[in-house]
Amino acid sequence: MCVTNTPSNDLTKMKTLRYLPLVIAFVFTSVTNIFSQVVTSVPSEYTDPTTEVKILVNLDLLDQTQETVLNLIADADAGLDLYIWTWKPFEFPAGHPKANGEGAQAWKNSNELLKMTQEAEHLYSYTMVPTEFYEVDAATVYSEDIHFLVKPKDGGGYGDPDRKSGDLLFVVDPPNVARPAVYGFPSNPLQNDVFRIVYDNYKEEKTTMQNLGTQECYVFLEVTLTDSTIIRPSSIFQVGNNPDLQMKQIGTGIFELIMIPELFFNLQQGQKIDKLKAVVIRQLFISGADRVDNDFIIDMACWND
Amino acid sequence: MKQLFSILILAIALSFNGCKPDLKEIGPSYGAGEGIYGSWELSSVNQVDLKQPIPESRNISAFFNADASRKMQIKFEQANNAYSILQPGALPRTFGTSGTWKFDTLPFPTKLYFFTSNNDTVMTPIKNMVRENDAFFGFNVVRSDSCGSAYVRYEYTFKRLN
Q1: pLDDT surpasses 80 at B147
Q2: What integer best gives the mean pLDDT of chain B?
Q3: Are residue A196 and residue A255 in the same domain, yes or no?
Q4: DSSP type of residue B126
Q5: Which residue of chain A has the CA closest to B48?
Q6: B28: in domain
Q7: What is the CATH number of the domain that holds A273?
Q8: Residue A302 is nearest to which of B54, B92, B146, comparing CB atoms?
Q9: Does the CA dihedral A9-A13-A18-A23 come out positive or negative?
Q10: Nearest to B158 by CA among B42, B67, B39
């Protein structure tokens, strides 16, 4: 089929081309939003709201199609101080020392306590311990996160153009505390600590190791000392005959072996453990099907000065 | 008649007011921490893993109750504020074999210091301010790794022996 250019087609093309910059801008904005964040923090992996965090805001990454944002950046460029204005996880009421603003027109008179620190051009920070700053517990910070915006002391309004960022969010999530099927408690013991190796058979994904009987769970142990000596109470095929290596059931599907490593391995004065390896197995160990897939290894080298 | 009845009621009320008991001496106040003197044996232990993102606690008393020789025994003496380890048990040998002890800020102490004969100083937050009639007393010990980072806390409770 032959298509010829007609005036009507040209008009359509021109209309389409007119939106091209907008389309490019939209795609560009979407891509930059994916690969960069307006709000970041130090430390970057922040999971404990009872500790200090520096929340950073990069003005360059704000939505600069908004007039309020352009006003904010203009104020920053003019050397005006910037402030946070925050309402979650808790907003202090008017008159409180930590209220967002002071006086009858709070929006036009930010609280000096909330002044941000300029880290670099268009990069501002505010440092806080969230539970102390908001006077809430950690669970509240986890559930509500930190909501705020950035503004100059006078945020406009009352007939003047607003000067502010959009609403910003700093997400605070609890750490991942999921344990593997085999773990130690405490997680980093010294060799003279009380130490337990725990096996949660309910978490076992290897079908040949599932549903262990009460008396069936044993553990192969091996320690490597700092002088490279290796101590094994029993070879892996003899573990099932050594009652000291039986893991006792302490709950449904949960087994443990509790020890003080230096006593358990009968260490002599001056001997130090470098690594401890544990492999949970069935009492009757015949092949790889009768053991968990992953070795549990604790590196004690830096714990035994 | 009514007037006589009212006077009678008033007289009874006034007589009850006169029955207010006299305040008596309740004896001398307890000296802070004076109940610490004597011998104590480990009764229960909690272990707190401080390296977890959210510190986690386990009761490990059963390990010590399984064998009496695993239980630490300690004696606090009044003379010279001396202490001695009667039986080290299976706990980390934090306190050496003997030394001296001292409470922090009297009269409201919150910590107990051990000055071991090895010249170590061990600071232990106390769980309760022990009185002479208290059968149990406890303190916590935080252990640090070779880099100085706290990794575990033992929460000890002792039972009075004598």
Answers
A1: no
A2: 85
A3: yes
A4: B
A5: A186
A6: no
A7: 2.60.40
A8: B146
A9: positive
A10: B42
At residue B20 the predicted structure's pLDDT band, cuts being 50, 70 and 90, is: low
Across chain A, which distance is largest between two alpha carbons, in Å? Answer: 97
Contact call for A190 and B92, based on CB within 8 A: yes
Banded model confidence at residue A305, pLDDT cuts 50, 70, 90:
very low
Look-up: residue for tokens 């007039």? A67
The pLDDT tens digits for B98-108 are: 999 999 887 77
3-state helix, strand, coil in chain B (%, to 5): 20, 40, 40
- In sequence order, the β-bridge partners of residue A278 are A221, A296
pLDDT over 90 (residue A23): no
With pLDDT > 70 as the criterion, what percentage of chain A qualifies? 87
Give CA–CA dist A165/A151, Å, rounded: 7
CATH of the domain at B95: 2.40.128
- In the block, tokens 């020789």 appear at B69
SS3 track for A41-75: EECCCCCCCCCCEEEEEEHHHCCCCCHHHHHHHHH
> Average pLDDT of B10-26?
65
Distance CA A139, CA A119 (A): 30
pLDDT digits (tens, 9 = 90+) for B70-112: 999 999 998 889 999 999 998 888 899 999 999 988 777 889 9
User: Residue B161 corresponds to which tokens in the numbers above?
Assistant: 């022996």
Which of A177, A189, A260 comes nearest B53 by C-beta? A177
Domain count, chain A: 2
- β pairing state of A217-225 and A273-282: antiparallel
Enter the ipTM: 0.77
Average pLDDT value for chain A: 87
**Minimal C-alpha gap between A17 and chain B (Å):** 54
Rounded to an integer, what distance in angstroms lies between the CA atom of residue B153 and that of residue B131? 25
Domain carrying residue A296: 182-303
Task: Please compute the mean of the pLDDT values over residues A294-298 and round it to a whole number.
Answer: 93
Q: Which domain holds residue B49?
A: 40-160
Per CB-CB distance under 8 Å, the chain A contacts of B63 are 194, 258
